[in-house]
Specification:
There is one protein chain. The protein is 37% helix and 17% strand. It has 265 residues and is an alpha/beta fold. The chain has 2 domains: 5-187, Rossmann fold; 194-261, Orthogonal Bundle (Helicase, Ruva Protein, domain 3). Strands 3-2-1-4-5-7-6 form a 7-stranded mixed beta sheet. The longest helix is centred in the C-terminal third of the chain and has 18 residues, at 244-261. The radius of gyration is 20 Å and the shape is elongated.
Length: 265
């Protein structure tokens, strides 16, 4: 099975490495695991070798679907195969809790997949995801560092984030041009509601849309200096200098303003 660039495919077939990724997810006994983009099933086999109660795979490539169905025939009912585009699915509807996502994500859709899952992070016990190393570093970056940005804030706002296993290009077939890394996201007990999450998405998109601008200019469309003054943040600062708590205060104030405006005559 040849990897297709159009699908962002880079297969990880080394059983030792896939077993290490599964260990990064922690104990899986009694958990229902969802995998996106299994390809020929290297990671799927490692998941089935774990104590997971069930494994559900989501795949869009018909060639991989055929391979997965062959694997399912020998999995004693523990493997469910879904032929679909993961971008259009509510993954939490595919398996009962406690559920986790463990996946070597297709590189070309990794960011939108992650943001979609962060919107509903409360539905997952954990997410153990393989990204390009550059993206993994963006997700886990600290404020005032070059990699810190919108993904950093969104991910760290709703989850504890750590980078684990790092893999060189030659670990994959075909080798990508970059290193990869496994990111562990453990959702926090208290999660923002849909309105607040939407406000944070708007806020971070605007704040990091023009990184060199001071916040008074970058946030002009959202209230600019007035919004910043209401939460005690200097308008002269730039987005990359604010920590996640500061963005949380701004998002909550923005969400409150949006709600109050709905009741004005």
């Amino acid at each position: 099975m040849d990897a297709r660039r159009s699908l962002g495919q880079h297969f990880l077939l080394d059983g030792n490495l896939t077993a290490r990724i599964v260990r990064e997810a922690g104990p899986l006994g009694g958990r229902h695991v969802i995998e996106v983009g299994p390809g020929p099933g290297g990671l799927t086999r490692a998941l089935l070798n774990s104590q997971a109660a069930s494994v559900t795979v989501v795949e869009i490539d018909p060639r991989a679907i055929a391979a997965m169905r062959e694997l399912a025939a020998d999995a004693n009912g523990r493997l469910t195969v879904i032929e679909a585009d993961a971008l259009g699915l509510d993954l939490s509807s595919l398996a009962p809790p406690p559920r986790q996502i463990v996946a070597n994500l297709p590189y070309n859709i990794a960011a939108p997949l992650l943001v979609g899952w962060l919107r509903q992070a409360a539905r997952f016990e954990a997410l153990t995801l393989m990204f390009q190393l550059e993206m993994a570093e963006r997700i886990s970056a600290a404020p005032a560092t070059p990699a810190y940005g919108r993904l950093s804030v969104l991910a760290q706002w709703v989850a504890d984030v750590t980078i684990g296993l790092r893999l060189p290009p030659e670990a994959f077939v075909p080798p990508p041009k970059v290193w990869s890394a496994v990111v562990s996201l453990r959702p926090r007990p208290i999660q923002p509601g849909p309105t607040l999450f939407a406000a944070m998405e708007r806020l971070t998109a605007v704040a990091f849309g023009q990184r060199r601008k001071m916040l008074r200019g970058a946030l002009r469309s959202l209230g600019g200096e007035r919004l910043l003054a209401e939460v005690g943040i200097s308008a002269d600062r730039r987005a990359e200098t604010l920590d996640v708590d500061a963005f949380d205060r701004l998002a909550r104030r923005l969400a409150a303003s949006d709600v109050s405006s709905c009741f004005r005559p």
